[in-house]
Structure formats: C-alpha cells, structure tokens
Amino acid sequence: MAKIVFPVILFVYIIFGILYAIETPAWQAPDEPAHYNYVQFVAKNAKLPELCPGDYPAAYLEEIKARGFPPSMPIDSLRYESHQPPLYYIVAAIVYRFSHVLVNPPMPLTLRLFSLALGALSLVVNYRLTQAAFPSHPLLALGTTAFAALLPMHVAMTATVNNDVLAELILNLLVWGLVSIWRKGWTTQEGLKIGALLGLAFLTKMQTYIAFGLVALTLIWDAWQAEGKHTLPLKRASRHAGVVYGVALLMGLPWLIRNVTLYGLADPLGMVRHDQVVVGQLTTAQYLAQKGPCDLLRAFVITTFRSFWGQFGWMGVVLHPRVYGALALLSGAVVVGLGHLVFSCRSSTHRLSPHVRRSTFLFVSWAALTTLSYVWYNTKYVQHQGRYLFPALAPWGIAFTMGLYQVLHRASRLTHILLGAGIVVLLVHGALVGDVKGFDLALLVAALTATFAGRWIEKQQAGSAFALLYGALAILNAVCIYGYIVPLL
User: Fold this and answer.
1) What is the phi-psi region of residue 7: left when phi exceeds 0, alpha when psi lies from -120 to 50, beta otherwise?
2) Between 20 and 30 A from 282 (CA), which of 24, 60, 177, 420?
3) Nearest CA to 285 among 375, 378, 385, 388?
4) Cis peptide bond upstream of 108, omega within 30
5) pLDDT at residue 231 in the model
6) How many CA atoms lie within 13 A of 98 on its CB side?
7) pLDDT tens-digit map of 120-146
8) Cα dihedral 378/382/387/393 (nearest 10)
C-alpha cells in the first residue's frame, strides 16, 4: 500500500505547492523580499552581502505591506536578512543565474518553485526517517508525511523564497543519520557524515542550531542508556563528539571569519549587528510595557496556533474563527490521544525495543529543543509565528498521527465521554443564559459522530479514516488558496 499511497501524497503536495506559488502575489509572504534580495545579490556579485544600517526601513516596510507591494514601490531597500547563514542563498543564486540565462522567468516564481522542490525532497526524507525510526509501523510513516504535505501553512511556506525549507530538509537528514547509527554503530566514517550534516545545518539557518544539542543528546544516550553491542563507552563517545563538532566547525569557519571581519570579534553570527539594524521591530519588552504579561501570553498562544495551521500573507490573512475552532477541536483530540498513550505506556516502556526507545527519545528531544528555541526567540522580539516550529515537523507529524490513532483505536471511550460532557456543558450553559452556541454544539456533535464513524471505518480497513481526514486537509488547502489568498491578497 505504501508504494501507492506515498507517491499520491507527494503528488498532492506538489500540486498544492505550485498553486500556492502561483496564486500568492509576489512578496506577499513573510520576509520574502529580503530573502530574494539576498539571493539576487549573491547571484550578481558572487559574494555575500553585509547587513548595514538602513537595511530595515521600518516605516517603508509597513507602508509597502499595507499597500500590497505595488510595482511603484520597489523592494530593493529591504535587505534585513543579510545576516543569515549563506547556504540556501548560494544554491538559490545558482538557480537564479541559470534560470535567467535559459528562460528569464518571472521572479520570484522560479525561486519559489526551487523551494518547493526542496520541500518535496524533505518529504521523501521525512518518510524514510520515520520508517527507519519505527520500522514496525508503516502507517505511521505515511501519516507523518501526509501531515507535513497537507498542513496549509507549511505547504504555503515551502512555496516561497526563504531558507526555512532547506533548514527542515537538513534537520531531517541529520536525524535520519542519527537514527540509522543504531544499526550501523558509531564509526569514524559515520561521525564524519554526521559532522558534515551538522556543518550544513550551521550554514543554513539559526533555527537549525538545535542540531548541536541533538547530536550531544544522542551521544549521551548511546553512552549511558544503550544496551549490549550498541553501548558506546564514554571515551569513544567523546572521541566521536570531537570528530562531529570538529568537522562542523571547519565547515562553518570561513563564514565565521568573514563575519568577524565585518561585524567584529564579539559578533561572529551577525546578531549584534542585526539588533542594531532592525530598529522599529516590536520587542517583547515593549509589548509587555504596553499590554502586560497576560495579553502577551494570550497573543502568543492564539497567534502561534493560528499561524501553525494557516495565517497567510504577512500574518494579515486569518481564516474564519470557525475554521480555527474545528482545528482546535482536532488538536484537542490529538492531545487526548497522546495523553492516553503516555499513561498507558508508563508501565510497559520495557516492552519497547531499545531502538524504538532511542528513536522516541530523539524525536521528543527534537520537538522540545525546537519549542524552547521558539520561546527563547520570542523573549526578545514579538514573533508569534507557528512556522518557526516547522523545523521539527516530523515529530509533530508523528505526534499527530499517534494521537489520532489512539483516539480511533484505544482511547475512543475517553474521547466520547469528553465530547459528550462538552455537549452537556454547552446545553446547560445555553439554558442558563438563554443563548445556545449553535455552531459550537454542532461541531461537538459532528466530532462525536466522526469518532464513532472513524472507529468503525478503521475496523473495516486500517488507515481509511486517516485518508478521509487528510482528504479534508486537502480541501482546506484549496479553501485557503481560493477562499482567502486569492481574494484577500
């Protein structure tokens, strides 16, 4: 079945990605003009740009966004991404040069399609990675890949000009390598491979720097938690760490030296210069002073959730609240399923194979480090964008699939009780205040019906209920494109 289903998933992703790339007006994606200017500079000058004062014209940026990026307002002055690690931009510059020599296509469409190609490759790696981590659960790999392929905001972002998609691809490759080492064992050759991938991650995007922590945690696990022939003595683990981090440092050293030359010894990543340049970007301290911690927390949670699923343009195109309500109910069901899974597995973790325990530890660490990185970034600037969680989309997809599986197979009674209780609460509250929330009530009833139907369908053919759900996500992508992006952007 996987030989048929996976190509279908990939095909659907490519079709929707092309539609997002075509239908989203030029520059109507977060920071796309600045990313494009970086690529164009490298293509025309064969060197990296320097981030300079004036590269973030805050007032002009707000005006051009408000006016929808009209042709009369050039984007040339938007260069505030010039501090980013260079790998994506160097490769994209090659695409830029060749495309202009061959066909001189419209921009940024060509670079958007290049990003989409990277996204398709990332899905392939995502699928193979999940297979390697959980080889006895083939449906898990399909469900995880389908989640990434049909999550509206993710598809939209992989069809724009930015370095997010390459960061996701390299992290998937790195974790695949770490998972596969369990079978191969730590050797100098494997250490060199992991070090090379870590070096690529270092040169791609700062969100990928969690990879350094993932490698360290994997080595620690293999040194103290593994069993039998897979045990890695502490001395050997330290030696492999030296190889991995040494290779990564050597790969990143030219870029670091260049940054020190430009920005000073205390600023090898260009972040001090970045903070000096982006004057006018809303900081968390300013937001707290204006609105307080409660409002900040509320905005953080709501906007993160919405922009994880779909909030388009420069975060200005939001879906109807009822759409988010349905997605929140779906997410809640996943959480219930995961909670049931964790509770039921507490006394039976010894039944899991050492490989599965190690893979689970690695994926949980991946998700945790990504979340901590996102929260840390938001302590400085107000950047409540769920796309910053996409570097760990494989763990989120695994959690989504496993949570729903529990709901449909093992936690259905608990789910039915919770949904039934929700219906009763709404009815009682409506009777007391004289205002029954009709849509909320209908949504809970529909969810209760869907869980009964889904359980029955899964008994007839495993995976069928998941296919229907992902079909609904495909429809949601079409709604996002033609119900929101085309008319509103």
Assistant:
1) alpha
2) 24
3) 378
4) yes
5) 59
6) 9
7) 999 999 999 999 999 988 899 999 999
8) 20
CB count in 10 Å sphere of residue 417: 10
Query: Three-state secondary structure along 230-275?
Result: HCCCHHHHHHHHHHHHHHHHHHHHHHHHHHHHHHCCCCCCCHHHHH
Query: How many other β-carbons are positioned within 10 Å of the β-carbon of residue 38?
Result: 28
Residue-level pLDDT at 485: 97
User: How does 165-186 read in b/e, with b if 16+ C-beta sit within 10 Å?
Assistant: bbbbbbbbbbbbbbbbbbeeeb
Structure tokens belonging to residue 459: 């008994």
Q: What is the DSSP string of 367-391?
A: HHHHHHHHHHHHTTB----GGGGGG
pLDDT at 138: 86
| 326 vs 288: CA distance, rounded Å | 31
Give me the residue label for tokens 């990026």: 69
CB-based contact 165:118 (threshold 8 Å) = yes
pLDDT at 387: 96
The letter for the amino acid at 172 is N
397/400 Cα distance (integer angstroms)? 5
- pLDDT at residue 474 in the model: 97
Cα 176 to Cα 132: distance, rounded to the nearest angstrom: 7
Query: What token pair was written down for 19?
Result: 């539609």
Which stretches of the chain drop beneath a pLDDT of 50?
228
Q: Are 74 and 27 in contact (CB under 8 A)?
A: no
As a whole number of angstroms, the distance between CA 374 and CA 371 comes to: 5
CA angle 11, 13, 14 (to 5 degrees): 65
Cβ 145 vs Cβ 321: under 8 Å? no
- What is the spatial distance between Cα 379 and Cα 61, in angstroms, rounded to a whole number? 23
**DSSP bridge partners of 318:** 311
Rounded to 5 degrees, what are φ and ψ at 311? -150, 105
Closest CA relative to residue 95, chosen from 80, 84, 111: 111
Chain position carrying tokens 């430009």? 262
φ/ψ of 318, rounded to 5, equals -105, 150
CA–CA distance, 99 with 43 (Å, rounded to integer): 11
Length of the chain, please?
Answer: 489
d(CA 3, CA 135): 15
* Closest residue by Cα to residue 173 from 134, 129, 218: 129
**Ramachandran angles phi, psi of 381, nearest 5°:** -125, 150
Q: Which of 193, 178, 194 is nearest to 358 (CA)?
A: 178
What dihedral do alpha carbons 7, 12, 16, 19 form, nearest 10°? 80
What pLDDT was estimated at residue 114?
97
pLDDT computed for residue 477 by the predictor: 98
pLDDT at 86: 98
Q: Which residues pair with 381 in a beta bridge?
A: 283
* Alpha helices by DSSP H, 264-346: 271-277, 284-309, 321-345
